[in-house]
């Protein structure tokens, strides 16, 4: 049966500082590198070594994929797709979360982070205005990637690994599971914990929500 494994990248430098990262291309911390490596044996022990590997174009996701697969004994360069990139946080990128919370209040902070259709404010970079993205915006750009790239691989029985980001994976889960806007705030994607979906031959989840793959206890 086809299997889809979703993996959020390891801890990045801005995760460690609790800063809104979005599409800023920051690297993994040493801790994040180790988190990525630990995923490799976990996938191997679970029988989930991938036939196809896709990642976003951002360094933290590309390196997480490479480190995990090398640790699994299957070195591979992931196929990068910008549609898997993290959401744009617009003017919030680079700001500490605590500062945004203090400046705008808990309700607006929650709406920017967790709602389905509320986008953060835009940012002007070099005279060009780049809008923030809502989760609905991310789902809209991600859906063609699912339909044209990921689902065809899965329908022929492959195991596919997707290494991306909290919000791009939340959007993909919403697409996969048909999660409505009212349930989107509940979706959480922890760092460097593989989420496994077993699918039917039409690439539909057999168990909504999938299951997290845990490493076996050390002997």
TrEMBL record:
One GO MF term attached to the UniProt entry: phosphoglycerate mutase activity
UniProt GO BP: gluconeogenesis; glycolytic process
Enzyme category, top tier: isomerase
Segments crossing the lipid bilayer: none
Catalytic residues (UniProt): 9, 86
Site for Transition state stabilizer, residues: 165
Chain positions recorded as substrate binding sites: 8-15, 21-22, 60, 86-89, 113-114
Catalytic activity: (2R)-2-phosphoglycerate = (2R)-3-phosphoglycerate
Family: Belongs to the phosphoglycerate mutase family. BPG-dependent PGAM subfamily.
Protein name: 2,3-bisphosphoglycerate-dependent phosphoglycerate mutase
Originating organism: Blastococcus haudaquaticus
């Amino acid at each position: 049966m086809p299997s889809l494994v979703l993996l959020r990248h390891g801890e990045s430098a801005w995760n460690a500082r609790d800063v809104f990262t979005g599409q800023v291309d920051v690297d993994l911390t040493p801790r994040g590198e180790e988190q990525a490596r630990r995923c490799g044996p976990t996938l191997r022990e679970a029988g989930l070594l991938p036939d196809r590997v896709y990642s976003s174009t951002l360094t933290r996701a590309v390196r997480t994929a490479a480190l995990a697969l090398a640790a699994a004994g299957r070195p591979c360069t992931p196929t990068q797709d910008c549609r898997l990139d993290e959401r744009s946080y617009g003017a919030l990128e680079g700001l500490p979360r605590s500062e945004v919370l203090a400046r705008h209040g808990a309700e607006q902070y929650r709406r920017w982070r967790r709602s389905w259709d509320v986008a953060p404010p835009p940012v002007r970079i070099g005279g060009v205005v780049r809008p923030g993205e809502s989760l609905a915006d991310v789902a809209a750009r991600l859906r063609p990637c699912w339909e044209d790239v990921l689902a065809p691989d899965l329908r022929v029985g492959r195991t596919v690994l997707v290494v991306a980001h909290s919000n791009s994976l939340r959007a993909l889960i919403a697409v996969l599971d048909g999660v409505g806007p009212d349930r989107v705030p509940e979706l959480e994607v922890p760092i460097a914990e593989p989420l496994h979906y077993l699918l039917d031959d039409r690439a539909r989840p057999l168990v909504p929500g999938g299951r997290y793959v845990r490493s076996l206890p050390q002997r």
